[in-house]
Amino acid sequence: MTLKEFTSELDKLFSLKQAEDFDNVGLLCGNPTREVSGVLVCHDALENVVDEAILKNCNVIVTFHPIIFSGLKSITGKNYVERAVLKAIEYKIAIYAIHTAFDNDYFGVNYRICNELGLKNQKILMPKSENLLQLVVYVPSDYSEKVKNALFEAGAGSIGFYDECSFSVKGNGTFRPIEGSNPFLGTYNVRENADEEMISVIFEGFKKNQILSAMKSAHPYEEVAYQLYALENDNQYVGLGRYGELEQEMAEKDFLKFVKEKFNLEVIRHSEFLNKKIKKVGVLGGSGASGISAAKASGCDAYLTGDVKYHDFFQSENQMIICDIGHFESEQFVTEQLVEILSEKFPTFAFSKSTEKTNPVNYFF
Q1: Distance CA 285, CA 288 (A)
Q2: Alpha-carbon gap, residue 199 to 148, rounded angstroms
Q3: Are 39 and 352 in contact (CB under 8 A)?
Q4: Is 295 exposed, middle or buried, given 0-12, 13-18 or 19+ CB atoms closer than 10 A?
Q5: Long-range contacts, stretch 205-212, CB < 8 angstroms, 24+ apart
Q6: Average model confidence (pLDDT) for the chain?
Q7: Three-class SS of residue 335?
Q8: Planar angle of CA 358, 58, 62, nearest 5 degrees
Q9: Which of 85, 96, 136 has its CA nearest to residue 9?
Q10: How confident is the model at residue 332, as a pLDDT?
Q11: What is the pLDDT of residue 136?
């Protein structure tokens, strides 16, 4: 399997186009034509991880965090980013990053955090907005199934855990072929009446080009009549963060002890106790202060994330407890998740989980 073939499957698996705009996901370095000899999965593709890949004869590193995040004007090894990239290039090792594509995935980072906490009735905390489009196309009745099948195969009509979703209305269409046309049916300069169906499907915006191409290829008309509408509906199955409910409510201190045990934590930074029971819990792996308002609006009693700054804690507003459990700590299950997902996708291929320490934060007690 070539690197191009491998990454093409990864692009589909993790929906890279769902990553945040600021992010740098996908293939960061590597020759797409090279054969894949082995894959190492890690949290951060640091120099010690590249050394591990060399030792394990892996020429592809799949990393959660992108080692190249902002632009590089030179690669001379003067900092930790350049040293890792330089060594990867020297040893012909490709690096592929997933990051917020997996943060936004319904079964991604925050799904695992919620499951570790045993949360029920889970929902996306900050669903993607301005993410959905609706296509309405008019098709001769005899061709409606052909066009619908083409739309479905291109990715239209998938809503949550349902696919091939559409709505059709039968009606009568009119048109008149004029000079310059090459009509599928009808006579020049004569208005025609045709039995048609109006087909409506919903899809994620990044699929637009492939869906329109499939529609036009399957449609018999020379000029296809269709409309696209941008929907204000939130996409409830894609977005950052997640929230759910504990099986049994807990006292605040008992909840923090529970979290420490589940995540094997040394310390939790938190806002003031409110002397209330904890039932609904919000989570956002990594730097998640941006989700505090959404967690409050969702009625969360506690919110778990990392990298919370001094002033961010004030946003609790005596409504919930904000808990900073650490950036790496909140994402600690990611590497294991990715190995599980990749092993299922490529059952005949072996994936190695990195054993190198990459968390830069240490604690002294």
Answers
A1: 7
A2: 8
A3: yes
A4: buried
A5: 205/130, 205/131, 205/132, 205/133, 205/230, 206/15, 206/17, 206/18, 207/154, 207/155, 207/156, 208/133, 210/154, 210/155, 211/135, 211/151, 211/154, 211/155, 211/156, 212/135
A6: 95
A7: helix
A8: 50
A9: 96
A10: 97
A11: 98
Q: How far apart are CA 84 and CA 50, in angstroms?
A: 7
**Separation of alpha carbons 175 and 183, rounded Å:** 10
Cβ neighbours of 299 (radius 10 Å): 12
Quote the pLDDT of residue 364.
87
Please tell me the distance from the alpha carbon of residue 85 to that of residue 108, in angstroms, as a whole number: 26
Distance CA 66, CA 98 (A): 7
Cβ atoms of residues 253 and 323 within 8 Å: no
Phi, psi of 52 (to 5 degrees): -65, -40
Please state the length of the chain: 365
Q: Give pTM, 2 decimals.
A: 0.90
Radius of gyration from C-alpha coordinates of the chain: 25
Task: Report which secondary-structure segment, H or E, holds 237.
Answer: strand 235-250
The CA-CA-CA angle for residues 5, 11, 16, to 5°, reads 160
Q: How far apart are CA 88 and CA 10, in angstroms?
A: 20
| Ranges of the chain with pLDDT below 70 | none
Residue 344, CB-side half-sphere exposure with 13 Å CA sphere? 6
What is the separation of C-alpha 143 from the centre of its chain, rounded to a whole number of angstroms?
35
SS3 content of the chain, % helix, strand, coil (to 5): 30, 30, 40
pLDDT of residue 70: 86
Instruction: Please give the DSSP secondary-structure letter assigned to residue 36.
Output: P
End-to-end, the C-alpha distance of the chain in Å comes to 49
